[in-house]
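User: I'm putting together notes for a lab meeting next week and I want to include a structural view of one of the chains we've been expressing. I don't have a solved structure, so I'd like a prediction I can at least talk through. The sequence is below, exactly as it appears in our construct file.
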Amino acid sequence: MYKIIFADREEKILKILKRILETENGNLKTFFFNDAEEAAAALSESDVDMVVCDLDMYVDSGQPLLDYTKENYPGVIRVILTGYSLEATALQAIQKAHQLFLKPIESFQLKDKIYKTLSLKEYIQNENLRKLIAGINEIPVLPEFYYKLEKMLEQPDVSIAEVKNLIAHDPALVAKILQLVNSAFFGFSKNISDLTQAISFLGLKIIKTLVLYLSVTATIKIAPQLLKVQNEIWHHSLTAASIARDIAKELHFTQDEIDNAYAAGILHDIGKLVLLSYNNYYEEVTERSKTLQCSFYEAELSYFNTSHGDVGAYLLGLWGLPDLIVESVHYHHHELFKDDDEVNIKSVLQITELVSRDDLPDPEEIIKNYIIENPKRSNKSQDNFN
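Assistant: Thanks for the context. Below is the predicted structure for the 386-residue chain, given as structure tokens.
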């Protein structure tokens, strides 16, 4: 059973929330407060999974309730439910919370969002890791720059020039984008030095994914001796993204699906970036891998009872990324494609992970070995080719 605290100064809002959730008492235990201090006290008395409150809820010390929750109960998921939709308010919100819900909200949407967010906890069975991801200061919430870009891209008439002007304010990001577009991963015949041209070539979805990945990388504080490892993760992610894109192309996926496959490839090891800041994660898992003579992934499971795929999926899910990308990141070390007839981004990323380990980067050979000649896959793969 999940436990949720709802805090709002308006009694009528609390009554509406009670009415919406009154039929869910079999799965949820809910607490409702119009006083922040009472809500804070309830946090100390119950093993709470989520706090949902408005921005104007402050404890007696003058500290916002969400800040109090983050500081004292980092494993609790923090959600803002507010009637303010101004961008300045939203930017303030994402610095404090994992999710932002706007009033008014349909009852089915509220239930769906709550259950979807709470279900992410199933990815992380290790409570210490769950607290780390939910509360670590370096990456507590969706990066602000990514949020601004995402909101800009939601506008139907957004232009590449507008995107370029936003990105141009971050020289480090500009350098990474130009480095990527001129790398062998894309194989363009001429050198590209113009940011507008680079954005046009890469596409807005890939740009958005890069912004997210690089924003996370820039905010994580890791030991100097692990910078090389961080760089290796980046290059492996680019390789995986490139292979996933090529497989998706060979399977005649739509352009949107191809872009999603690339995005999943870039993000699939983002959990490793998070875990690099966790005590002696890399050293301990590496040593265990040598001792047990097993893969790094298997050593992770042995050490944490969870993996970087679970950690990455939990974090991306908290940030509200598309379900299929979250699932792809979660399952990329699971060889479920053998039992799953559907050829989609998740299965492409699973195959990509195998290929990157087997050093078999030819997409035609990959498809032949893992899809076409797999009897459980053949019918579906032929549908994609036709």
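A couple of points you could mention at the meeting. The chain has two domains: 2-123, 144-385. The CA atoms of residues 83 and 103 lie 5 Å apart.

User: Perfect, that's what I needed.
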